[in-house]
Design a protein that fits this description.
The protein is an alpha+beta fold and 70 residues long. The chain contains two helices and four strands, in the order E-H-E-H-E-E. The protein has a four-stranded mixed beta sheet with strand order 1-2-4-3, covered by helices on one side. It starts with a strand and ends with a strand.
C-alpha cells in the first residue's frame, strides 16, 4: 500500500499494537500512514504511534499526523 488512512479509530482499538504491526507490514517502504483521532490528545497519539519503533512522525497538519516506516 502507498497510503493508509487511520482516521478516528485508534481510540477504539483494544490491541493497537497488532493493527500497527499489520499496517507496517502492508505499507511500502516509502508509504505514508496518515492518522487523526479527535478523541485523543496530540501527546497520546504520538506516543501510541511511535512507541513500538515501527513508525516515525514525518509531518503534522492541523488535526492530522503523517508517519513513515522507520
Amino acid at each position: 500500500m502507498d497510503v493508509v488512512l487511520l482516521y478516528d479509530i485508534l481510540h477504539h482499538l483494544k490491541n493497537s499494537d497488532d493493527v500497527l504491526a499489520e499496517l507496517y507490514r502492508v505499507l511500502k517502504p516509502e508509504g505514508i500512514l496518515s492518522m487523526s483521532d479527535h478523541h485523543m490528545k496530540k501527546e497520546e497519539i504520538l506516543s501510541r504511534m511511535t512507541w513500538s519503533g515501527l513508525f516515525q512522525l514525518s509531518a503534522t497538519g492541523k488535526r492530522t499526523y503523517s508517519f513513515v516506516k522507520k
